[in-house]
Amino acid sequence: MILTKSKLITFSLLVTISLLPFFGQAQSQSAYKVKTIVIDAGHGGHDSGAKGHQTLEKHLALQVALKLGKLIEAELPGVKVLYTRKTDEFVELYKRIYYANDNHADLFISIHCNSGGVSRVTSRNKKGKRVTSSVLNTSAKGTETLVSGYGRLGEQDAAIRENASLLLESNYKDNYQGFDPKDPESYIVFSLMKNQFRDQSIKLASYMQNEYVKSGRTNRGVWEKSLAVLARAGMPAVLTEIGFISNPAEEEFMMTDAGQNEITQNLLNAIKTFKRSVER
Q1: Residue 121 pLDDT greater than 80, yes or no
Q2: Gap between the Cα atoms of 70 and 33, Å rounded
Q3: pLDDT recorded at residue 234
Q4: Which residues are bridge partners to 219 per DSSP?
Q5: Is this model's pTM higher than 0.85 or not?
Q6: Three-state SS for 26?
Q7: Rounded Cα–Cα distance for residues 65 and 173 (Å)
Q8: Whose CA is closest to 204, among 159, 147, 148?
Q9: In this predicted model, which residue has the larger pLDDT, 204 or 137?
Q10: CA distance 274 to 34
Q11: Which helix (H) or strand (E) holds 82?
Q12: Cα distance between residue 44 and residue 211, in whole Å
């Protein structure tokens, strides 16, 4: 993909125009209230996401998303909760954030599970022949929360993995103005999608990580990544990786009611802290 100056300017203008309805909200910090929260369960349908030994990312993400929504409604009266999906269905990434923008959401929270990835290992079989096999990394653990950004090329692994869902959409090049998740130059374009809620997104992400740490989870930090699902957010937006599905212990934890209750309580506490900080 060749990015000409005219294309970059045109793309930048399109993004700016799409965010104009939200400029007033950002400029009036004192009037900002958290009234509507959109919860996004990552992946779904034919897009299973990361695979564990016992389950799939799409299932865990949905279970946690639905529990978090019920908890918010129970403990934050007056806050409306909306979901990008409530069943095992595939929803295009651009439709998820458009849904949040169209409903004037004040927060967008995307729930995902991490994966340690696969390594290629070469060994010899009983006949002495060299054999290459794929081995799942089961040692990686912990939580991390992502906000929209472009980062450096060497830090794009998580972004490329999540954005790979774009390729499952029939018209992804039209929906994302030619963005190709396999083309590093496309992340330059995504860097133009900076929005005025960056600071609030980082704040919310930090609160989430702080709550995870209080529960004894390993803190992998807050990262800026070029994630398609966050790029056009007209509100504070984060993607939180609640644990490694490739790690048997963390997968088991995320599958249990106790584990999911702990995770959703962590997220609720972070939302409460963020809400108090912006509404005071």
Answers
A1: no
A2: 20
A3: 80
A4: 143
A5: no
A6: helix
A7: 29
A8: 147
A9: 204
A10: 9
A11: strand 80-83
A12: 27
Would you say 149 and 195 are in contact if contact means Cβ atoms under 8 Å apart?
A: no
Q: Which single residue is written with the structure tokens 């016992």?
A: 54
Q: What is the secondary structure of 206-225 as a DSSP string?
A: HHHHHHHHHTT--EEEEEEE
Write out pLDDT tens, residues 225-271.
888 888 778 888 999 999 999 999 999 999 999 999 999 999 999 99
Query: How far is the C-alpha of 240 from the C-alpha of 223, rounded, in Å?
Result: 10
In terms of residues, how long is the chain?
280
Residue 157: φ, ψ to 5°: -55, -50
Q: Which two tokens stand for residue 150?
A: 């472009």
How far apart, in whole angstroms, are the C-alpha atoms of residue 174 and residue 274?
35
Q: Around Cβ 158, how many Cβ atoms within 10 Å?
A: 20
Contact 75, 69 (CB under 8 A): no
Q: Where are the alpha helices (DSSP H) in 57-142?
A: 57-75, 93-102
Q: Strand 219-225 vs strand 237-244: parallel, antiparallel, or unpaired?
A: unpaired
Backbone phi, psi, residue 135, to 5°: -125, 125
- Secondary structure element (H or E) that encloses residue 130, with its range: strand 130-136
Backbone φ, ψ for residue 93 (5° rounding): -60, -45
Q: What is the pLDDT of residues 59-103, one digit of tens each?
A: 999 999 999 999 999 999 999 999 999 999 999 998 999 999 899
- CB–CB of 87/45 below 8 Å? no
pLDDT at 156 exceeding the cut of 90? no
Q: Residue type for 192, please?
A: L
**For 195-233, how does the pLDDT look when each residue is reduced to its tens digit (9 = 90+)?**
457 888 999 999 999 999 999 999 999 998 888 888 778
Tokens linked to 191: 């860097």
Please state, in angstroms and rounded to a whole number, the distance separating the CA atoms of residues 170 and 112. 23
* Structure tokens, 261: 């209750």
